[in-house]
Amino acid sequence: MTAYDYDVLYLGAGHGAFDGAPLLAQAGKKVAFVEKEKVGGTCPNWGCNAKVILENAVSLQRELRASNGIVSGSGDIDWTKNMARKKEIIAIFPNAIQGGMEELGIKFYFGAGRLADAHTVTIGDQTVTAENIVIATGMHSHRLDIPGAEYLHDSKDFLSLDQAPDKMVIIGAGYIGLETASMMNAAGVAVTVILRSDRALPEFNQRYSNALVQTLEKQGITFVKNSQTESVEQVTSGFAVKTSTGTYEADYVMDATGRTPNTADLGLEDLGIEFDKAGIAVNEYLQTAVPNIYATGDVVKKDQPKLTPTATFESQYVAKRLLGQDDKAIDYPAIGTTVFTTPRLAQAGVTLDEAAAHPDQYDVVEKDVMDDWYRMVDYEKEGHLSLIYDKEKHLVGAIEISEHAEDIINALLPAIEFAYTPAQLSRLVTIFPTIGYSAIGDLL
Ligand SMILES: Cc1cc2nc3c(=O)[nH]c(=O)nc-3n(C[C@H](O)[C@H](O)[C@H](O)COP(=O)(O)OP(=O)(O)OC[C@H]3O[C@@H](n4cnc5c(N)ncnc54)[C@H](O)[C@@H]3O)c2cc1C
Ligand SMILES: NC(=O)c1ccc[n+]([C@@H]2O[C@H](COP(=O)([O-])OP(=O)(O)OC[C@H]3O[C@@H](n4cnc5c(N)ncnc54)[C@H](O)[C@@H]3O)[C@@H](O)[C@H]2O)c1
């Protein structure tokens, strides 16, 4: 029998890797990571955690201003101080994650890993072998191929930006484009968002994504629709973004046109591992074309949203599979997702578009969130919720736009995932008065 250096070797040390690795190490497996940049990967260092710390100032500002003088002060955001706080909190993550793993006996190799064969990874001139390998290399920002692309910034640059610009152009109205626009508008920046079509956030029902765009417009953000970005030029005042509908000047230009799986220079072609621009192809056990090589997280080609909780679920699934604890195909639960704008847009389970396409299977109940008195407590002004039921009256999906949509959807997730009956729902005695009580109250 061949003796490998490790039982399991991960390429990448983000959530797709470090959420499953402890299960293996605790069960006595020899585990290692190869990481080419920062332990923790995108989410803690340049994604969710970084963003939500910065966004907290926006939520504080909203409540203070909406209080109409009950709480006094201007609510102005000092972006430089906000960024300093973000940097202070974020700085703890890489060492904390690495330390936690090392306590379990997990080893780290630093550098870019490349598959040499089905059991061997090279990192520079170092060679490491493993019985099983998990590719969890994530994604990087897509860069528009236009003249002046060198002047564009991505979300990684933006999440470390110390000085707020006066004027910002954001190309792309997906999660990152809208979250950035919402934050910078609140920080006093003049923001223009350029959309190549007439709709933002295609993952969400258009009535809801349009409602979000309209609210952001009322807050002062300019949206330019059906506009193809052609070039970026340096001008005396900063940069000129030339598009099919006009030229927009800014002193900071962000390319938020999507993210691309990290599949290059991994040696995938030589091993016959299939991939395309959507990611690495896997079977229902998350195995690549080479059975002992798995893939997890954002690098995987899949229908599920590429989010941290999805990466965590997959990482833990592969770990359990490698421990012989789960031999079934991966069975994804309902995955909740939120756009962290002000207001939030959040959904989980069966979508409104699916419900509209299958009226024989689903019924939709519409709610104005302002019908719930509790929403006035923290100065909610408007919001809407759609609840999607199957014909047996089980909640199967929900979408909400409101300042607390993420908390409502989180509270509804158990009902969606476990198909609670009306009798089971009535046994949920949630704390009153809270947003969780409101969420369950909507179902009764
Ligand atoms: C700005 C932003 C905000 C986001 N906000 C949210 C949010 O609010 N909620 C949410 O759920 N999700 C959010 N996401 C998505 C979330 O960050 C990802 O879904 C998650 O990080 C995926 O984890 P992963 O382990 O698959 O990939 P990553 O976290 O990207 O980790 C991959 C790791 O692999 C390393 N790597 C790459 N190639 C190699 C190689 N050859 N050798 C060794 N190492 C390699 C990389 O350096 C990286 O550390 C956000 C993403 C961005 C960019
Ligand atoms: N809150 C969250 O959970 C969160 C936040 C940020 C990112 N993410 C994850 O990261 C992924 C990537 O986010 P993202 O915002 O980079 O990608 P995205 O796919 O959500 O949005 C990219 C947008 O850019 C547009 N676009 C593409 N090419 C364009 C062009 N030439 N001109 C103008 N617009 C163009 C697309 O139509 C799309 O709307 C998300 O899909 C999500 O999985 C999640």
Automatic annotation (TrEMBL):
Keywords: FAD, Flavoprotein, Oxidoreductase, Pyruvate. Its cofactor is FAD. The keyword Transferase does not apply. InterPro entries: FAD/NAD-bd_sf (IPR036188), FAD/NAD-binding_dom (IPR023753), FAD/NAD-linked_Rdtase_dimer_sf (IPR016156), Pyr_nuc-diS_OxRdtase (IPR001100), Pyr_nucl-diS_OxRdtase_dimer (IPR004099). The keyword NAD does not apply. It comes from the Bacteria. Pfam families: Pyr_redox_2 (PF07992), Pyr_redox_dim (PF02852). Its EC number is 1.8.1.7. GO terms for molecular function: glutathione-disulfide reductase (NADPH) activity. Residues 337-435 form the Pyridine nucleotide-disulphide oxidoreductase dimerisation domain. Residues 6-312 form the FAD/NAD(P)-binding domain. Belongs to the class-I pyridine nucleotide-disulfide oxidoreductase family. This is Dihydrolipoamide dehydrogenase (E3) component of pyruvate/2-oxoglutarate dehydrogenase complex or glutathione oxidoreductase (Lpd). The lineage of its organism: Bacteria, Bacillati, Bacillota, Bacilli, Lactobacillales.
